[in-house]
């Protein structure tokens, strides 16, 4: 059974940093392209970053609005995906989901971890 | 950026009746490899999104066959042949041809 379990969310002050994690199991994580998608409270879904497999160069891609504040990384030895968010803003408040990429879209999803940015 | 526009945004449906959601793209979703990366997701209240359909019309494993996807180019449709109570939630179209963007979501409720 595929499982993606996010952790590390919480309350952070504006301007702070946070790293959230996603532990994967039940599929070939090493060869998977992985992604993060967020959802602000009561709002829609928004892609925030992607990382390819090591075989495909482990390169990362982000939407323009991220502007260098987000960094996606992976540790294949731990089957774990990470998202580092710096210079947090109140508008970054959201549930952050990790997801595996397949056929140009998000196949499996975790349960999400809530990041709240507030003073 | 590719903009996906869904309609309607609210969809009240009687149990057992069909439902249809439209998704229109601001540009063609045909990729250079010939595939069209248009997908549909369901998000039930309090749950994570779940992919239903990938590449326009391919149902994911475990998705009931009352769900079907169709379309081409810039116009796409998700149809539910007979709505059941468990179908309540928000439906999103999403494109993976030009990076990744989602539609605004369509909230399906039982009338």
What's the structural blueprint in terms of helices and strands?
The complex is a heterodimer of chains A (119) and B (111).
Chain A: E1 3-7, E2 10-12, E3 18-25, E4 33-39, E5 45-51, E6 60-61, E7 70-75, E8 80-85, E9 94-102, E10 105-109, E11 113-117
Parallel strand pairs in A: 2-11
Antiparallel strand pairs in A: 1-3, 3-8, 4-5, 4-9, 5-6, 7-8, 9-10, 9-11
Chain B: E1 4-7, E2 10-13, E3 19-25, E4 38-43, E5 50-54, E6 58-59, E7 67-72, E8 75-80, E9 89-95, E10 101-102, E11 106-110
Parallel strand pairs in B: 2-11
Antiparallel strand pairs in B: 1-3, 3-8, 4-5, 4-9, 5-6, 7-8, 9-10, 9-11
Keywords:
heterodimer, A: 119 residues, mainly beta, seven-stranded mixed sheet, four-stranded antiparallel sheet, 11 strands, 53% strand, globular, B: 111 residues
Shape of chain B: globular
Radius of gyration of chain A: 13 Å
| Assembly state of the chains shown | heterodimer
Low-confidence stretches of chain B: none
Amino-to-carboxy terminus distance of chain B:
35 Å
Structural class call of chain A reads mainly beta
3D shape of chain A? globular
The number of distinct β-strands of chain A equals: 11
Low-confidence stretches of chain A: none
Q: Which series of helices and strands of chain A comes N to C?
A: EEEEEEEEEEE
Query: What would the average pLDDT of chain A be, to the nearest integer?
Result: 97
- Class by SSE composition of chain B: mainly beta
User: What percentage of amino acids of chain B are in beta strands?
Assistant: over 45%
Count of DSSP E strands of chain B?
11
> On the 0-100 scale, what is the average pLDDT of chain B?
97
Task: Specify which chain pair forms the largest interface.
Answer: A-B, 21 and 25 residues
Q: Total number of helical segments of chain B?
A: 0
């Amino acid at each position: 059974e595929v499982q993606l379990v996010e952790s590390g969310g919480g309350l952070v002050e504006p301007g702070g940093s946070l790293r959230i994690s996603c532990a994967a199991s039940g599929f070939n994580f090493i060869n998977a392209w992985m992604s993060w998608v967020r959802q602000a409270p009561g709002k829609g879904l928004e892609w925030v970053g992607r990382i390819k497999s090591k075989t495909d160069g482990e390169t990362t891609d982000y939407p323009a609005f991220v502007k260098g504040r987000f960094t996606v990384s992976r540790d294949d030895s731990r089957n774990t995906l990470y998202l580092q968010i710096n210079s947090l803003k109140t508008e970054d408040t959201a549930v952050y989901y990790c997801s595996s990429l397949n056929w140009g879209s998000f196949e499996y999803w975790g349960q999400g971890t809530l990041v709240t940015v507030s003073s | 950026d590719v903009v996906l526009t869904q309609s309607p945004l609210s969809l009240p449906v009687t149990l057992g009746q069909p439902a249809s959601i439209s998704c229109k793209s601001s540009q063609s979703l045909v990729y250079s490899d010939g595939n069209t990366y248009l997908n549909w997701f369901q998000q039930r209240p309090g749950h994570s999104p779940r992919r239903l359909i990938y590449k326009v019309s391919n149902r994911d494993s475990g998705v009931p066959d009352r769900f079907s996807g169709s379309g081409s180019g810039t116009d796409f449709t998700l149809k539910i042949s007979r709505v059941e109570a468990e179908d309540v939630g928000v439906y999103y179209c999403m494109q993976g041809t030009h990076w990744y963007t989602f539609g605004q979501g369509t909230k399906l409720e039982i009338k």
